[in-house]
Amino acid sequence: MASWDSLTTRQLTAQREAAVRTQVLDAVAPFSPFWRSRLSALGRTAKDVASLSGLRELPAAGERDVCPDGNPSGAAGLVLQAKESGYALHADGPALRKALGRRLTKPDDYREIVEADTRPTSYVYAGQALRFPVASTRSDLDVVARTGARLWQVLGLSRADIVVSALPAASSALVQALSLAALGASSPLFAPGGQVEQVVSTLNMVDATVLVLPAVGGADLLGHLTDVGAALSSVTTVLVAGPPDPHERSAIADAMAGIRGARPVLLAVHVPDGHRLPWAECRESGGSTGLHTYPDLEVVETIDPETGEQAGQEGPYEVVLTQLGLRGTALLRWRTGDVTDAVEEEACRSCGRTVPRALGLHGGALVPQLMLRTGPQAADLRAIASALSGRPDVTDWRVVIGRSVRDGTDELLVHVLPPDGVEQADVAVAVARDLRLAAGMLPSQVIVSDDGRLPDGTGLSQRLLT
Ligand SMILES: [Zn+2]
After folding, report:
1. Residue 341's domain is classified under what CATH number?
2. 175 CA to middle of ligand 1, Å?
3. Angle 196-203/218-227 helices, nearest 10 degrees?
4. So what's the pLDDT on residue 89?
5. Cα(160) to centroid of ligand 1, in Å?
6. What pairing do the DSSP bridges indicate for beta strands 375-378 and 369-372?
7. Do 102 and 165 lie in a common domain?
8. Ligand 1 centre and the CA of 367: distance in Å?
9. Which residues contact 18 (CB under 8 A, 6 or more apart)?
10. Strands in 95-191 per DSSP E
11. 242-275: pLDDT as tens digits
């Protein structure tokens, strides 16, 4: 069979149908408390959802659905919880035969096989408006490491590459994915943390060929590194984790001009929130053909970011994803909070890989981290949109994020247009109350339109403007 990145549509569809069936029937539906109760609340059986077309009919869910009251302990319900008898019922043939064989001869080995598949041993943190742990089993870590070897192919790296990561030391899926990728690809990786001094001393110690920078603050950090004369002349790839927005990308590209004696390529890498696999831009494209995904290990779809329903013709869209083959924390049609212009299915025109690619991806755009006058606050625009849509006292609305001219803090302004005969003050109070319930925050201001007009502009969607 062709390799993972050159399967024909037919081969890929067959492989994914089988993987969706296994993931839903043998892992998620029987063993995840959250998905089990969600399916039953929706009146669906596991079989209804266990195909690509069935999956597409499943309403997308995100962190707010898992933790409706804002308490992150709800995320435990996403983790598969299998007992030994459940494992025997649902493990695939070869794994089960191996395990049963060992059970007779070496009981400890048997337990090891069962636990490698089902027992969470490793956690990273995710979440946008809240923060919750994401669990991996040992077999998940194997999948992530093997995917890392593919990541190296997409980035055009080899085992000869030496990576220095200037990402802050954090227990994030991206940090974990990079470290397992280096392991999977047999490349040395140094992760001294995000402090300039430590990064400089590491760069002066090894001939780094890959420098990993955060999208936010990456340009400043690189500026510092070039200013102090850190050893960067061996660097061939600047890998930006985020992914960078166009402004951050061009700022980093400008700072790269200060690297003496080298002309590295700038490529982006990204793990969507809650996920564990790193998407990357291919080296051949220089970053112009979007983030490449892994079609046999995930289903990447798009929805309307305002309504959470099937996307219409016009983007931008919210990225939703279903993991195939990962256990631990299991995601089906997960709302990532990322906004994309499109997910293209055709072969990449630069590298020829037949893998879906997310274009113009803006990470976490639907849950911006705001610095309000009252303090820092993550604003879940999806929850805000859901509180504003379909109300009898609001005909139309806009949410505008801007900066206060007075003191430079962020402002979240909600403009509403009430129908005739509705008292303005009543609408303002009711809207503020419902926003607090749905999104756990109050807007800076609710502005009731008295002339029938609402602000317009270009934004994340028709009504969520920035
Ligand atoms: Zn490509």
Report:
1. 3.40.50.12780
2. 23
3. 60
4. 67
5. 22
6. antiparallel
7. no
8. 28
9. none
10. 120-126, 132-137, 163-165, 189-190
11. 899 999 999 999 999 999 888 999 999 999 999 9
Spans of the chain below 50 pLDDT:
none
Residues 442, 400 share a domain: yes
Q: Are residues 214 and 314 in the same domain?
A: yes
Say whether both 48 and 156 belong to one domain: no
pLDDT digits (tens, 9 = 90+) for 97-141: 777 777 777 777 767 776 777 788 899 999 998 899 999 999 999
| Cβ-Cβ contacts under 8 Å for 14 (sequence gap 6 or more) | none
Three-class secondary structure of residue 126 per DSSP: strand
> Which of 233, 208, 344 shows the shortest CA–CA distance to 285?
344
- CB-based contacts of 350, cutoff 8 Å, min separation 6: 282, 284, 285, 286, 288, 289
How many whole angstroms from 194 Cα to the centroid of ligand 1? 29
Would 216 be classed as within a structural domain? yes
As given in the structure block, the two tokens for residue 188 are 């040395």
Taking the centre of ligand 1 as the mean of its atom positions, its distance from the CA of residue 269, in whole angstroms, is 13
**Co-location of 85 and 169 in the same domain:** no
Cα–ligand 1 centroid distance for 289 (angstroms): 6
- Ligand 1 centroid distance, CA of 323 (Å): 22
Print the domain residue range for 111: 9-117
Q: Which two tokens stand for residue 161?
A: 């590459």
Ligand 1 center to residue 10 CA distance, Å?
20
Q: Distance from the CA of 114 to the center of ligand 1, in angstroms?
A: 37
pLDDT of residue 160: 97
Whole-number Å distance, alpha carbon 148 to ligand 1 midpoint, is 16
* Predicted model pTM: 0.92
